[in-house]
Amino acid sequence: MVSAEIMQESKRANPGKATILALGKAFPHQLVMQEFLVDGYFRNTNCDDPELKRKLTRLCKTTTVKTRYVVMSDEILENYPELALEGVPTITQRLDICNKAVTQMAIEASQDCIKKWGRPVSDITHLVYVSSSEARLPGGDIYLAKGIGLKPETNRVMLYFAGCSGGVAGLRVAKDIAENNPGSRVLLATSETTIIGFKPPNVNRPYDLVGVALFGDGAGAMMIGADAIPWVERPLFELHTAIQHFLPDTEKIIDGRLTEEGISFTLARELPQIIEDNIGDFCNKLMKVAGNGERDYNNMFWAVHPGGPAILNRLEKKLDLSPDKLNASRRALEDYGNASSNTIVYVMEYMMEENLKVKKEGEADTEWGLILAFGPGVTFEGILTRNLSV
């Protein structure tokens, strides 16, 4: 499947190639059980429309989400009751809440990652910060850097409003930085909250209910670097080849607008079909860039951002994947919902658990795989990756 030259490479990371050295995550305190979400949401928004309630109940079942973490709480709604009202300008209040929340979660996820990495925070040379849940100057990168004690000379990059592809886009950027700056250590942090788009139900905005049933909050972090220090750092995945591709004339398929009432998202019904129609060519292109033309995708592992069950199902069908290949993505969706840019971190953690399970059961290792995500544009992000933990 992968070219003979690549396959002969040992599971030791190749010199100069970026690797993931540690993962971290963090969540707000509110855990929402999906079976209780409908009643709570309609109570909080003072809505009693039975048809909308039935529709949200159906959506909550089809999303396959079981639990999620959210920043929104009774206390916030008590302090900001206008968030549950229709047509009230609330962008100032929302950003006040979101800016603080994403910073705190990003700090906690980064600290978790740095602890697992095992080196002092002063050894971090670069920061890549990703969020679609805040807007301010200076940006969240400054507040994160201050919160974890980064050196003032740390080089920073921000990726704003990249949506669901933001985590993998950030990983691609971190890979480029690590490979072009010998000895560098790049902290990638993502942080998201749905408060920026929280709204009461409205028959004229049916997609709002999809968001209520699907999206969650949280933060993720990864440490990226090449040439790991033996006995100090433990590389988990090698980032072999990364590419990005946008589909012309699909700008309106994933559409987000920042308004006086917060951010409004719409996802076109065609999105899963568009991904299905283009995923084969994208994966083929990624494999060819890496120097191989054969394709046997069931001999690879798959870390796919779970935008929703329809996207996972279409991808599985199109590439003729066995049902277990998307286990990590489906588990992340069940446990955390679609947490936008963060979710790929949760998928990678579950991927490591899956690898450990395979190893204990004495099954053949899956060394090569693809990290994939899809976002506004429509943009495809992909990284051919080697599993160094098998």
Order of helices and strands: HEEHHEHHEHEHEHEEEEHEHHHEE
Helix content: 25-40%
Q: In percent terms, what proportion of residues is strand?
A: 15-25%
- Overall residue-averaged pLDDT value: 92
CATH superfamily placement of the largest domain: Thiolase/Chalcone synthase
CATH architecture identity of the largest domain: 3-Layer(aba) Sandwich
Distance between the termini: 18 Å
Describe the structure.
Strands 5-4-6-7-1-8-13-12-11 form a nine-stranded mixed beta sheet, sandwiched between helices. Helix 2 runs antiparallel to helix 3, helix 3 crosses helix 8 and helix 9 crosses helix 10. The longest helix has 27 residues. A hairpin with a 2-residue loop joins strand 9 and strand 10. It folds into two domains: 204 residues, Peroxisomal Thiolase, Chain A, domain 1 (3-Layer(aba) Sandwich); 147 residues, 3-Layer(aba) Sandwich (Peroxisomal Thiolase, Chain A, domain 1). With 390 residues, the chain is an alpha+beta fold.
Brief overview:
The strands form three sheets. The protein has a nine-stranded mixed sheet with strand order 5-4-6-7-1-8-13-12-11, sandwiched between helices. A two-stranded antiparallel sheet has the order 2-3.
Q: How would the blueprint of this fold be written?
A:
Blueprint: H1 4-7, E1 18-26, E2 30-33, H2 34-44, H3 50-62, E3 67-70, H4 74-79, H5 91-117, E4 126-131, H6 140-148, E5 155-160, H7 166-180, E6 186-192, H8 207-214, E7 218-226, E8 237-246, E9 254-259, E10 262-267, H9 271-289, E11 301-304, H10 309-318, H11 327-336, H12 343-360, E12 368-375, E13 379-387
Parallel strand pairs: 4-5, 4-6, 11-12
Antiparallel strand pairs: 1-7, 1-8, 2-3, 6-7, 8-13, 9-10, 12-13
